[in-house]
Amino acid sequence: MSSTMNSIAAPHGQTPGNSHFDPEKGWTAAQLQALRAQFPILAETIHGHPLAYLDNAASSPMPLSVLQAMQEFEQHQRANIHRGVHSLSQRATDAFEQARATLKNYLGAGPEHELVFTSGTTEALNQVAYGLWGAGPEQAWLRPGDDIIVSGLEHHANLVPWQHAARISGARLRILQPDAQGQLHLDDLAALLATGRPRVLALTACANATGECPPYAAMLSLARQAGALTVLDAAQVAAHGLPRLQALECDFLALSGHKMHGPMGIGLLAGRRQALEQLYPLRLGGDMVEHVSYQQARYAGLPARLEGGTPNVAAAVGLAQAARFIEATGHAAIDAHVRALRAQAVQGLSAIAGVRVLSPQASAAALVSFCCEGVHPHDIGTLLDERGIAVRTGHHCAQPLLEHLGLGPTTRASFALYNSAEEVERLCAAVAHAVKVFQ
Ligand code: PMP
Known about the structure:
The protein is an alpha/beta fold and about 450 residues long.
């Protein structure tokens, strides 16, 4: 291993780390500065203002150590994996498998779990939904008359593939409806599970459109007891507050690298081996087979079975480095930091006349979504951008939820480990200004 690689693997000296963190006070100004310095893109100026990057729920920037790990791979290890006897191919294979091991550890996976690389949460969830009907009516997990339960909080990526799965398999799609405040209730899930033939529960750990965090551990457990396979969309908790897989009654967990300071185009599907073995592969071809004749093929075992084709190896290496970065910075510290910023934003935004914050009680979320009476979110987003503040506006790929709540598009600000209280103050001041200008 080169010396660059060594320094990449040990970023502890450059980050605050658990031992220095006082949850009462948060990071010191110097610690926050040191953290920010790890993310070159944060030094950008937008329309003459320092960038306040508050769009982390969409994609979060990569620290230098991730960029360096990927460059190291491309410069010294790049070759196709698993197929070559030559040394470089072996190095690339080792790097890929090491990334898998690091990420299993990051997730708190046990020996009963396996991890499959995907291009992101969307592909992971598509693999699960397709995998449960793709084997055909004789062998698939889903049969006519089965029930697929999907929560009403989901991103389209955890709804549309289930709509299609229901159509093709003859299963029934049932929605676990949130109440008028956008909250899910265990009793409602129990009622759904008590009737019909529940075979799947698909649920988010945190709704990307509202920040609502359902009691997912209890819900997954209830669904499993009823004989359903359980699917958790962990995209919005990948960078903070990620539950340990071993502590959950979870058959499948999906997340995206670009939402946890890793590269775009990489994500993962982790889950129980037994459940993953139920899945018919989404991608058929090279690397996922054991033996092929002209007429048929015998598929390989996990994880290769679900990783057909050449994967994005550099991105897998980068994602593993992002996990190490988060661990070195400290899970608990990051969680406390983003929660504090969210609480500050909820308080500041709620104090502005005409602003309604969605799911204000969702204290575990790192995002805040809000509507301003009589002002279109795109106008707010544009005005904020003029002040260097990056937020997201629109339906956030969760149209059914916003319709259910009787709302249109919203504005969403989302926080990460390098955001500051001062940036939240800028956000609140700019929203107050926008409301004054447009109302
Ligand atoms: N689920 C949730 C909760 C999300 O927030 C997102 C991204 N906005 C996705 C799924 C889809 O992730 P990706 O686009 O990375 O596949």
